[in-house]
Amino acid sequence: MATTDLTADRFNETVTGNDIVLIDFWASWCGPCRAFAPTYEASSDQHPDVVFAKVDTEAEQELAAAAEIRSIPTLMAFKKGKLVFNQAGALPPAALEQLIQQVKEFDVDAAVQEQADTKEA
Question: What domains sit in the chain, N to C, each tagged with a CATH number?
Answer without folding.
Answer: 4-120 (3.40.30.10)
